[in-house]
């Protein structure tokens, strides 16, 4: 192409680029004359000095994060949004509206995973997907998961405003119930998508703490699930790549002043439910030698969890007793039942499994020594770790470099829907800093600037992967 022809084309591009920029998020134009291929798109730095200028509407995105946080069962600044609750249903409606406003075609599967698709030039090719969750554990914050859903929709808006047209379709996913709050099952939506027959079967019997079945809870939220529908949730060969944008939930990026974390692996979680049963009795009348206190068995097991985790000798091994319930729960009654839920994780699966086995042995010996019954020791899940795909790591690194953003490779100690998406698609994750690494509490915070940086890296990576 001659220089004479190139200059007017660039002039036209810049004219329309700034036109789209000034009309901010409103434009979802499909006018074919301004659609550009990735070759042109990645040509930004060659004709304009400096990094690609991706017009993120950071203010609009912050407003959406704030609006979504109002769908909560606890007062601000905390957020509590539990699967299939009224607030969850309202928040889902909010997300579907935003997807539609961005010109995405929206569909939902049987359990309420929500998909918004932007058709690429070649709809026969596997799509590039990105997304996260919007459910929130009790008294948590407004950024966990949310940044990866609203940020994904904004990344699509950014690409549309820039006149980009994908070759592979791009899809935003809002996953159902990444958090285990209601039914004790983490990553319920993505686990099913990844084809978990075990979960599809277990859901037939699953009830929440109020004894409401999974099916009834789903029905109340508008999802009339038939057992066979679970098979329709399973996906295979649907995506060529999956990306998730998320707050780090740890302090490293903030402490080191790094803008972007590029995740290489996700630590492997296991969760366990334990129940002890004793005779209970009157807190004054039953003398100490005659007791078999189920509460003390639970307390001893909690300390054993800490001991076994520390014995691993690695700071990568962690263990938490996040739930410890006593029955009947009266100050003057010896606990006759106790219920303990344990979460233990590691980047090394074998080491994590050794901890699980030690916890099991401790539960058996504590029950024996305290003459209580170990009525349940159930491993709810014992997931293997996931590795990010090398080409996606490279694409994310390249995008961060193009955007002049400092970045580092790191592992994710929290689990994410990406852990399961990695089973059906090459996977990668983008982390952004969050205040003091706080998460799962109301103080969780990420700055608008850091979120915008994450959205830019996501947009540029999606653009690249959609052309490959
Ligand atoms: C996810 O919420 C986790 O607990 O890692
Ligand atoms: Mn979480
Ligand atoms: Mn999360």
From TrEMBL:
PROSITE patterns, A to Z: PROKAR_LIPOPROTEIN (PS51257)
Signal peptide: 1-26
GO biological process: one example: allantoin catabolic process
Enzyme class: hydrolase
The EC number(s) this enzyme carries: 3.5.1.116
Family matches, as CDD domains: M20_bAS
Subunit relationships: Homodimer.
Record-given protein name: Ureidoglycolate hydrolase
Species this protein is from: Iris pallida (Sweet iris)
